[in-house]
Amino acid sequence: MASVLKVDKLDPQSGTALEIGSSGDTITIPSGATFTQSGTMNASAITAGTVATARLGSGTASSSTVLYGDQTYKTEPTGGKLLQVINSENGYRVLISTTTLTDMDSGSGVTWEVAITPSATSSKVLFSCNLALTGAYTAGADARLGITLFEKIGAGAYTAFGGADNSSSNLLANHAGITKTTGEEISLGNVFTQSILRTTNTTSAVSYKIQWKCINASASSYNNDETGSQITLMEIGA
In Å, what is the CA distance from 109 to each residue of 58, 94, 152, 155, 228? Predict the structure, then answer.
């Protein structure tokens, strides 16, 4: 039979500490009883279990709500969240004179490829590029360029996007009324920029590259290693 001790106050004999029960004992506060804490209880004393969400704040805790600093559960913001940014700068200087699309390199024999791995299939990828180029003449012709963007998902094949042959035929370095010497280099500056939001529906790596060509067979063009070209990829959350 359990014993009942009825007192109004318990004080430790030493006046410094009061111990209730021994190691391994269970101290039970029955239903309907209230444990009132007027002094200090350190959070480190909670070493097991979880704190009920209702004790953390007002409102309804769910998979679509978050706890704000005012201790209120509110609907989680959706759309337009920037989750990650990948940036690559390319200053490799290389001569091309072909009229056939060819990979833009970042080093000798190294294709300039930039990849991002989305964290969710619902995310989108914002592709941006800014190409700084230099043109040169081989027979007094203008140094117009053609540029095409390519995308690859996982181990698949590269496919053009943003329009087949994103023509940059306006990259004309043969200014009217100015006579240029054969082989003379003309800086075209930041002459090709694109910003395209892509729907990839994948959590595999998504890779991007650029191909370019000369519009005229007698013209030559270079990457500009002074200002540098850039590709930036951003994962935008749904």
Answer: 61, 10, 20, 21, 18
Say whether domain 81-237 belongs to CATH 3.80.10: no
Every domain of the chain and the residues it spans: 81-237
CA distance 223 to 182: 19
Separation between Cα atoms, residue 131 and residue 207, nearest integer Å: 18
* CA–CA gap between residue 201 and residue 223 (Å, rounded): 33
How far apart CA 206 and CA 233 sit, in angstroms, is 10
Q: Distance between CA 30 and CA 28 in Å, rounded?
A: 6
107-148 pLDDT, tens digit per residue, is: 999 999 999 999 999 999 999 999 887 766 665 556 677 888
pLDDT tens for 125-136 read 999 999 887 766
Tokens of 137: 């003449």
